[in-house]
Design goal:
Layout: H1 2-19, H2 23-34, H3 39-63, H4 69-93, E1 97-101, E2 104-107, H5 108-128, H6 146-163, H7 168-178, H8 183-207, H9 214-235, H10 240-264
Antiparallel strand pairs: 1-2
């Protein structure tokens, strides 16, 4: 199972390199169901893995002039503050048992995985829906809707903190729609935002005293980084829109599976 988990780690990087998102959507379920990591710890590991991988991908995008650093700051700062505070203060405050439905006890771990499944299902919809501005490559100046970008940045940061998701699937549509940014520029820009807030969120975990398995984390991250280079290479060969749609269907199936498994078969596997 561990070997399968490490093979899938490469897929995490490929996903980030190809469509600038989906890394954490794959990372958390792989860590929980394949590697047997506790869900709360898996969200912390996911922040480090996705953050490090996205940073390497972001540098690659910047070299190709596919990143807008002004947007990284406007979107990134509120997002970083929200994710850090969520990991450091909000997550430890959540009780280990949330509530009971009949004989089913909803624990903090189950709650996080169910929230994660809902995020996956919503993300899949944004990936499956055709993107009108995705193939736009014009050089028109970017228009910034500051209040909306700041609000979206804060909300994405809060969500990232709770479920360990980098939020590329939320950031990219926001940049395309709110800043009227061409898709490829949005992907490169989102990688830097994901990297900054994920790594700072992980620092919040370290200060919260989480026990980290650095060997597992280092190996998984290294393989994901190899994957992002494969993804960036493949992105030149494959239509981004076609790829995004098929990935969206995969994420939808995974999200429904996690939702059903956690609520109806909570004891069957997963590092609870």
């Amino acid at each position: 199972m561990e070997i399968l988990g490490y093979i899938l780690a490469v897929l995490v990087g490929v996903s980030l390199g190809l469509i600038g998102s989906g890394g954490s959507i794959l990372t958390v379920p792989i860590l929980v169901y394949v590697m047997g990591v506790n869900p709360i710890l898996a969200t912390a590991y996911s922040l480090f893995i996705v953050g490090s991988t996205a940073f390497i991908g972001g540098i690659q995008s910047a070299i190709q002039k596919r990143a807008d650093f002004k947007t990284v700051l406007i979107f990134g700062i509120p997002s970083i503050i929200a994710v850090y505070l969520t990991r450091m203060w909000l997550l430890p405050l959540i009780p280990s048992e949330l509530f009971t439905i009949g004989s089913l006890v909803i624990t903090k771990s189950i709650g996080i995985m169910v929230l994660f499944a809902i995020v996956m299902i919503l993300a899949s919809v944004s990936m499956i829906r055709p993107c009108i501005d995705c193939d736009k490559e014009d050089d028109a100046p970017l228009k910034y809707n500051y209040p909306m970008i700041l609000l979206e940045g804060t909300l994405v940061g809060l969500l990232t903190g709770l479920v360990g998701a980098g939020g590329g699937f939320l950031i990219i549509p926001a940049l395309v729609l709110l800043a009227h940014m061409p898709m490829k520029l949005a992907v490169g820009t989102s990688l830097f935002i994901i990297a900054a807030k994920s790594l700072i969120g992980f620092i919040g975990d370290l200060q919260g005293g989480q026990m980290i398995d650095w060997k597992l984390l280092g190996t998984f991250t290294g393989l994901a980084v190899i994957g992002i280079f494969i993804g960036i290479y493949l992105a030149k060969k494959i239509s981004g829109e076609k790829l995004k749609k098929s990935f969206g269907w995969f994420v939808l199936v995974m999200g429904i599976y996690i939702f059903v498994k956690e609520l109806f078969f909570p004891s069957a596997g997963g590092g609870h």
